[in-house]
Amino acid sequence: MGKRYAMVIDLRKCVGCHACTVACKSENNVPLGVNRSWVEELETGKFPNVSRHRLPRLCNHCENPSCLNVCPVKATYQLEDGTVLVDYDRCIGCGYCIAACPYDARFINPERKTAEKCTYCHERVEVGLLPACVNTCIGGARFFGDLNDPNSEVSKLLATQAVTVSKPETNNRPQTYYIGADEKSLRPNLLKIVGGEN
């Protein structure tokens, strides 16, 4: 059995510093005004009982990605390890994949005029390094690894923690998991509990 990469984000540890966003932009030369990875700030409740929540966002590298089959030139493709990538030489910038993604994880690169998204820093992972966002997370909130390795940190977390995924009703089977998400306090249908211990 080959590798199957996933990311786990522990919201209890996210301090909202946005170091992940900065590291991603720097590592991947992402232009101003767009992001491959970002931290969404959510406010819930009614005054004076208001709460703020941080939700790191990125491509979910879905097991069944809706962006894959809509590409008319097959520029979006999936590796055996589950990583979803874009072939910039093939992409015509039509935006079909952006419309098909239910997570708002794709955008048109304003300089290259092609679709772009998080790649789990595939070039780094191939040489044994962690994605830039995981490597730089000062709160230690991000974990990356092989789901098919029972000894990997992500496998252990999924086996012992209650986790949530974004919009499971889409049947995309996202591979970015969240720990510590209070379902009642986040946007409706954004996150739902899918496993682990409660």
UniProtKB/TrEMBL annotation:
The keyword Cytoplasm does not apply. This is Tetrathionate reductase subunit B. Gene3D superfamilies: 3.30.70.20. Residues 5-35, 82-111 form the 4Fe-4S ferredoxin-type domain. Transmembrane segments: none annotated. One of its GO terms (molecular function) is metal ion binding. InterPro entries: 4Fe4S_Fe-S-bd, 4Fe4S_Fe_S_CS, DsrO-like, ET_IronSulfur_Cluster-Binding. It comes from the Bacteria. Pfam families: Fer4_11 (PF13247), Fer4_2 (PF12797). Keywords: 4Fe-4S, Iron, Iron-sulfur, Metal-binding.
